[in-house]
Design brief:
Number of strands of chain A: 10
Mean pLDDT of chain A: 88
Number of domains of chain A: 2
Shape of chain A: elongated
Order of helices and strands of chain A: HHHEEHEHEHEEHHEEEHE
CATH class of the largest domain in chain A: Alpha Beta
Oligomer: homodimer
Strand content of chain A: 15-25%
Number of helices of chain A: 9
CATH topology of the largest domain in chain A: D-Maltodextrin-Binding Protein, domain 2
Largest sheet of chain A: 8 strands, mixed
Chain lengths: 310, 310
Amino acid sequence: MNLRDLDYIIAVAEFEHFGKAADSCHISQPTLSTQISKIEAELGVKIFERNSRSLQITAIGATIIARARAIQSEVREIHNLAAAERDPMGGSLRLGIIPTLSPYLAPLLLPPLARACPRLSLEWHEDMTHSLVTKFLNFDLDFMLLATLPESLDSDEFLIQPLFTEPFYLALPRTHRLAAATSLAMSDLMPSELLLLAEGHCLRDQIVDLCSGPALRQPTANDFRAASLETLLALVEHGLGVTLVPALALPTNPPYDSQGLVFRPLGRDGGSRQIRLITRHSFGRPKLRWELAKTIQSHLPKTVTIVNSL
Amino acid sequence: MNLRDLDYIIAVAEFEHFGKAADSCHISQPTLSTQISKIEAELGVKIFERNSRSLQITAIGATIIARARAIQSEVREIHNLAAAERDPMGGSLRLGIIPTLSPYLAPLLLPPLARACPRLSLEWHEDMTHSLVTKFLNFDLDFMLLATLPESLDSDEFLIQPLFTEPFYLALPRTHRLAAATSLAMSDLMPSELLLLAEGHCLRDQIVDLCSGPALRQPTANDFRAASLETLLALVEHGLGVTLVPALALPTNPPYDSQGLVFRPLGRDGGSRQIRLITRHSFGRPKLRWELAKTIQSHLPKTVTIVNSL
DNA sequence: TAAAAATACTCCATAGGTATTTTAT
DNA sequence: ATAAAATACCTATGGAGTATTTTTA
């Protein structure tokens, strides 16, 4: 067996098609076929059940592929360790981040991080929690910044580092009847006026949980299934409703207003989310982990609360 | 980089000598030299600091080698998984076991294990705790049976499974003044008559801890530094002293006596040790782990107490 | 019959060998 | 002076290519 062979079985598992997998590995289909056959002969088990019409991964194949991904990740990490030795704040790093955090954290984090680690090559993967976790478990991400913790991360091999708690704010059109109120609670809202993100966003679920009080605006055919907070805020600005946003979505300076929008804190227990940094314990560059966490915590606005300050 | 390259850097790290490492890899010294150079060039770091008289592992080299060992272990485990798929109770398994347990457990465990897993290839590594743990951490053992838990095993990546608790018995010459006593306590012993194993055996340390009561027989030039319990029992049989042995060291059937020896239970809190099975969570053959633990627990004499029965 | 994997064969990159030189104590 | 690693250069295994055949839905 060979390290390259691991790429090959992972590619076949990914594409479930020898031709496409071969392309992705930049080799010919016959070469891939022979190599896979050799591996299967060496191990004495079929990794893929295949014929000219279909391809399936066998049970043992799936466990082998999981190990192969882990091995590849370790090999990558050897390269990263070496790169970090040549340049402690260099190397490459793959960060996953949720869409309701990414646009607000990026401008805060990237400039100081580039200053602290000038030669660090950062891959920024913006996706919803579920997709990020899948990639992470496949060793395709080194770090994740999440607001929720799926059960699949309930394992000792992962390091979960709370960074900050971010309260929710009510976003209102400036012309809204509640725009001038000094203190607001969820119960002041009309059930129908709350706008939500599309399903799959953890923020949507958190707000739904929070709003067990006022009946939720049911999704209808006319509902705009907003894919981003920015879109949602545009709807609010045009008077189509109100929404809850995490603190980082606010304009950076008080009074936190922008053109047609005003943001109002919610009273005690108005809700908040905790942003956590997730890695594997086996991530081999502790200084880089520390630098990342520290840089995030050091450049947050006063609207959020630092947890576990470094 | 190549899987074989990992063998090479591990071999050089092991022998600290290119010629010997090359021999162990069955390649020539120049081939090894060129390969190591290539790896170092690829990673851009020196793994070994070397000249014609000395060889040292660099700091980054040590971390790379640790990863390399982990990768090799994963690769081995892929082969083992495949072997286990062809034959669920087959494959190979490397078990480390302490010298004060090995001679008593081996005859109990091996026949039923061979019956349960006829084609399992078992490597039996008998050594003291410290050496076993070193091998285990280097991924050179799959399982350990230990009576103590060094701090280096304080990590979530290891699975520690208590199997049974084994009380200590006092071993006396048949002619001893206490041989006829029905109930004994540590305080009945004369400080000078207690014989101990050589240093390094966990059993020695446990008995020393237990015997904070009677002053210990101090090692002198005349002391026989017994390397095994069997040797110690031979000394006892010849009237040179008494000793404490774990229950499994007793002859299998009551009245638990053999030729010139008698064994007497100690009263409440006469001491005991707990035997634990240690693996990595990443060990990929849970059925085999279960079978091993179960087979051990199923074939123990009544003198020990099963913990966490499977 | 058509899409996909397997086979047959040829080629070449690179791991590995032998002979020799360089290095550092 | 000597032990050990590095270099030079040659060999050959096995990974990769192209052309073709086999398979099965």
